[in-house]
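Students often ask what a holo structure prediction actually looks like on paper. The answer is less mysterious than it sounds. You provide the chain, you provide the ligand, and the output is a string of discrete structure tokens encoding the 3D arrangement of the protein together with BIS(adenosine)-5'-pentaphosphate.
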Amino acid sequence: MRLVLLGPPGVGKGTQADLIAHEFDILHYSTGDIFREILKGSSELSGKLAKYIDKGELVPDDIVSETIRRTLSNDGTKSKGWVLDGFPRNLVQAKMLDDLLCNVNQKLDFAIYLRAHRDILVDRLASRRVCSKCGIIYSLQINPPKENSICDECGGELIQRKDDERDTILKRILIFENEFAPIRHYYKDEKILIEVNGIGNVNDVFNHILENLKSGQERRN
Ligand code: AP5
Ligand code: MG
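The corresponding structure tokens follow.
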């Protein structure tokens, strides 16, 4: 199974991609997470990335494409399926992924688009906390840690992402809204688009994704 999980900031891509990866025993790659790992170091690339990510702007396509190319070309990834979370973000990236897969005789199975109203996104992101050590995503509203600012799983410190400040959140949402329509049409034309309402509790959203994937597969067979 090869999937991309698309949607605005805060809609639950990371949360749902983890569940999908576990359900289908596939790998979960988030371009955002990959970039934040690079940001922890001090390289020429990390300096470049910080300029975009901290301001909530998209990283240039050449850097993103190279990151995806490298991620998907390792042997473990080739033999297993994957879900890409937060990639592609524009038509250039969508076509780049298709070219990459075409070169190895593979195809994307489905593009899942999670949608939610912007007020909900702002609320969710304002109360998100992330473990600085293992990356688990918390919400002060729906799944707060047992102990304030400490990860239940690994004891790491919970932090608020730099790009989760209100103005940066609004900018990220606006960029998504400006870039998304062409990708949506692209995958719709390819007949692999699955649209799922991202509002509701995490398990209900997950079940809707599973139902849609199942009916998508049945239609294809
Ligand atoms: P990225 O890390 O991908 O950020 P994003 O797209 O803005 O999305 P988020 O991670 O903020 O939200 P999410 O949808 O994963 O939601 P989550 O599950 O955490 O990218 C960051 C930056 O990297 C970009 O701005 C850009 O600079 C760069 N970048 C990355 N990819 C790029 C690309 N392809 N091209 C160019 N640049 C790129 O959930 C949010 C909160 O809501 C959590 O607290 C969670 O617990 C809670 N929650 C989840 N589901 C529910 C629910 N059903 N009900 C209530 N709360 C929920
Ligand atoms: Mg995410």
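The pocket of BIS(adenosine)-5'-pentaphosphate (ligand 1) is lined by residues 7, 9-15, 30-32, 35, 52-53, 56-59, 64, 86-89, 93, 124-125, 128, 137, 139, 142, 163, 172, 200-202, 205 (CB under 6 Å).
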